[in-house]
Amino acid sequence: MSKQIICRNATLGYEDGIVTENLDFTVNSGDYLCILGENGSGKSTLIKALLGLRPQLSGEIKWCDGFKAKEIGYLPQQTPVQRDFPASVREIVLSGCLAKCGLRPFYNKAEKELAESTMKQLHIEELAGRCYRELSGGQQQRVLLARALCATRKMLLLDEPVTGLDPKAQSDLYELIAKLNRDGITIIMVSHDLNAALKYASHILHIGKKQLFFGTKENYLTSKTGMNFIETEGGE
Amino acid sequence: MAEKIQYYFQFPIVRYALIVVLLVALCSSLLGVTLVLKRFSFIGDGLSHVAFGAMAAATVTGVTNQMIIILPITVISAVLILRTGRNTKIRGDAAIAMISVGALAVGYMLINMFSKSANIAGDVCSTLFGSTSILTLKKEKVWLCIGLSAIVIFIFVLFYNKIFAVTFDENFSKATGIDADTYNLIIAITTALIIVLAMSLVGSLLISALIIFPSITAMRIFRSFKSVIICSAVISVICAGIGFFVSLLYGTPVGATIVTANIAVFFIFCIISSFSGTKK
Q1: Does A44 lie at the interface with B, CB-CB under 8 angstroms?
Q2: From the centroid of its chain, how far is CA B92?
């Protein structure tokens, strides 16, 4: 099991203030890390830092063993622009391959095949010609997941992936993510959903103004932070 | 009617004008989809006012080739508008409004103060709404127009996939290591080129219509990015052709006629889409 991300005493924030500090955790390949925290606890700032888009104020975030920040497949939250975007599913999935193109203006055959096989893997091949904005929320998330998988097969970073989905679509998406994790892809999921975190994750990172907990799920259940949070959130 | 058109086409000037009209229509429709989807529609509008101001400045300095002044000023403004769009102190829409109205005011003032022309109102009107007749085109202008169009089309085809990715999801593109800021810059600069290109034809107030109408029309019916782009290019070229011939035959102002044709097609597409049940 090799280390992919090491975060040592990192402080995150903007020019005018610290959002969260004392972040200290490690992500190993094959982990399923769930990041919990209230709104405003710095989850989205942490995402930007992990993606290498915004440097930490102090401390260290390291991508190790040849693993690079841009090899993280990112599943962002949907933006209003996307909801009425005229694009076919195939076009969107293919755009995940774009980083592989470099300066080459068009996709080559290998990239087109990768897009097709990824769509098959996620069972959305019948949707390939459909328009993105006409799909259900669950189908849209699958499309974006396929796009992320075209970009990388090493790590996925999911930002509140089930927001706005009905319960059936939520559990389908969680099962799909768990399956990808069993296939060896590291998962980092930012979530509000404590029950899902406890059911699927192998590790928990709980952040507030500073790091409240990092460790395995089993340890979280017996930790003070964990027990308090589970009580207030009414989890299992 | 056919005879009349045939008669007009004996003159090279009419043929040049048609080429220019079709090229301008094609180019302006290409980036429209991206600008509409990125909520950048008013960048086009803002830049066209800047181009008006620049043209006024160029008139005052009395240089023979006004493009030397108009082109750089518009391109620089495009970059500035994009930069301030990300500045939190002045929000994007306010920045665009400031730049565009400011350029309009200064431009109009300059023309009034320094113009030696006897017909200032006419000059201003044709800069704002396009020439009443574009049959005054010089041959150099036609070549300039062809050159600029070629550059715009080349950039668009070369960066087509990148423009799609950056338009659809800037965050994801950045996360996978695509330099989204650079591509946004390319989009802004290309928009500036298109505006300078289209200004002599439809005038600075009507350019946004030429950029935005074809793509909104195409989005009524088509559902993939590629088909929307192709359809909006086709709509734009056809409307420009219709507008050109109507204005030739009935002596209407070219720019306004083309835009009216676009509006008509927009409503036709709206009706079709509501009948076929693909309404948004």
Answers
A1: no
A2: 20
What order of strands is seen across the sheet that includes strand A186-190? A72-75, A155-159, A186-190, A32-36, A203-207, A211-216
> Each residue of B73-105: pLDDT tens digit?
888 888 887 766 555 555 666 777 788 888 888
N-to-C CA span, chain A? 30
Answer whether B221 touches A (CB < 8 Å): no
> Range of B98's domain?
2-275
| B179: amino acid identity, one letter | D
**Higher-scoring residue by pLDDT: B43, B269:** B269
Does the beta-carbon distance from A82 to B174 stay under 8 Å? no
ipTM: 0.84
Q: Which residue has the higher pLDDT, B43 or B222?
A: B222
Q: Where are the alpha helices (DSSP H) in chain A?
A: 43-50, 80-83, 89-95, 98-101, 109-121, 137-151, 167-182, 194-200, 217-222, 224-233
Contacts of A199 (CB under 8 A, 6+ apart): A174
Give the Cα-Cα-Cα angle B119, B121, B124 (nearest 5 degrees).
Answer: 110
How many domains is chain A built from? 1
The answer to whether position B114 is within a domain reads yes
Phi and psi at A209, nearest 5°, equal -65, -25
**Secondary element (H or E) of residue B80:** helix B67-86
| Number of structural domains found in chain B | 1
CA distance B37 to A195: 37
- CA A28-A173-A115 angle, to 5 degrees, is 80
B37: chain A residues, CB-CB within 8 Å? 81, 85
Is there a contact between B190 and B163 (Cβ–Cβ < 8 Å)? no
Residue B111, domain CATH: 1.10.3470.10
Asked, for residue B245, whether it belongs to a domain, the answer is yes
Task: Give the integer Cα–Cα distance in Å for B52 and B202.
Answer: 12
Contacts of B178 in chain A (CB under 8 A): 98-99
CB atoms within 10 A of CB B188: 23
A102 at interface of B, judged by CB pairs closer than 8 A:
no
B114 touches chain A (CB under 8 A): no
Contact with chain B for residue A105, Cβ under 8 A: yes
Could you tell me the two tokens for A206? 């709980």
Angle between helices B92-114 and B120-129 (to 10 degrees): 150
Task: Report which DSSP code applies to A88.
Answer: B
User: Under an 8 A CB cutoff, do A148 and B157 touch?
Assistant: no
pLDDT over 80 at B222, yes or no:
yes
- Asked, for residue A120, whether it belongs to a domain, the answer is yes
Position A143 in a domain: yes
* Structural domain harbouring A130: 77-153
User: For residue A137, is it within any domain?
Assistant: yes
